[in-house]
Amino acid sequence: VLDLIEDVRAGLLSPPRYLPPKYFYDDRGSSLFDLICETPEYYPTRMEDSLLSRYGQDIISRARPGRILELGSGTSRKTRRLLDACEQLAHTCIYTPYDVCEPALEQAATELLSAYPWLEITPLAGDYHAGLGNLPAVEGTTLFVFLGSTIGNFSDAEANAFINEIRQCMQPGDFFLLGADRVKNNAVLHAAYNDLGGLTAAFNLNVLSVLNRELQADFRLDNFAHEAVFNTQFSRIEMYLVSSVQQSIRLGTLAETIVLEPGDRILTEISRKFLYEEVEKLLADSGLTVINHFEPDNGYFSLVLAQLGCS
Length: 311
Ligand code: AVJ
Hints:
Elements: H1 2-11, E1 17-18, H2 27-36, H3 44-63, E2 65-71, H4 79-88, E3 94-99, H5 102-115, E4 120-121, E5 124-125, E6 141-146, H6 156-169, E7 175-181, H7 186-192, H8 199-215, E8 224-231, E9 236-243, E10 247-251, E11 256-260, E12 265-272, H9 276-284, E13 288-294, E14 301-308
Parallel strand pairs: 1-12, 2-3, 2-6, 3-4, 3-5, 6-7
Antiparallel strand pairs: 7-14, 8-9, 9-12, 10-11, 13-14
Helix pairs in contact: 2-8, 3-4
The structure holds N,N,N-trimethyl-histidine.
Residues 36, 44, 148-150, 152-153, 193, 200, 269, 271 line the site of N,N,N-trimethyl-histidine.
């Protein structure tokens, strides 16, 4: 809650209003996100999943990881493709899911153990924005994975800082697997963030329920509309909550009041879309060497395996 108070003070009290996207993911938000992933419009999850199924064995046989460390693991659904590949190659390893959400970690661990009895799971709870700290040593290499194009939620500077953080935790020879969404036809992008079933809208609005609950606020969800537009200049989807009326909102915990006019907007998420070269540049700028760059025929998504060179 302290983080939230600070972020709300910094971002929400005056325009341009901005909230970090990490507050979407309470129980309801996480369920809504899972449902979004199944809509016909939201292609990234399916694309990444099929790349992981297709190239999982290539990745595992190249990295032969002693440990797979997944940042922001959530339900660990996508990671199963990598674990399947381990199984097919009779390769065993430790799996360390790393997430802010402890209940999700525990549930994922229980489910994974029943599906992969050979797997040793050592979950790590924490906020990766605060850095990874000291990782327990393991035998063999560690394969760091950061999937789902969550990297797209970061600004350029944040993305570089984040990958640098990870690089600091890597030993020479360790690998990094990054999933990143790519620039594509505007209509496809627009539809992915404006699904006809209204799940993305519900997901976006849900952050106001989080604020209501955590900060004794009185946002009325029906006074806001979901908006998601592709900003060509910055090559990113921008997701907003737009005030549809003149309204004042009380934030009890902060003893603050926000006044909004019709049309006033709160930026709730950026989701950057990268060019092929930009994905590689992100990694190269942190001193990582690209080993494999996987993409589907339509170039909708990138899955990149990189390594910290042994010097
Ligand atoms: C989980 C951050 C990758 O940016 O596409 C989905 C979140 N927001 N629909 C994304 C999201 C709206 C998603 N990431």
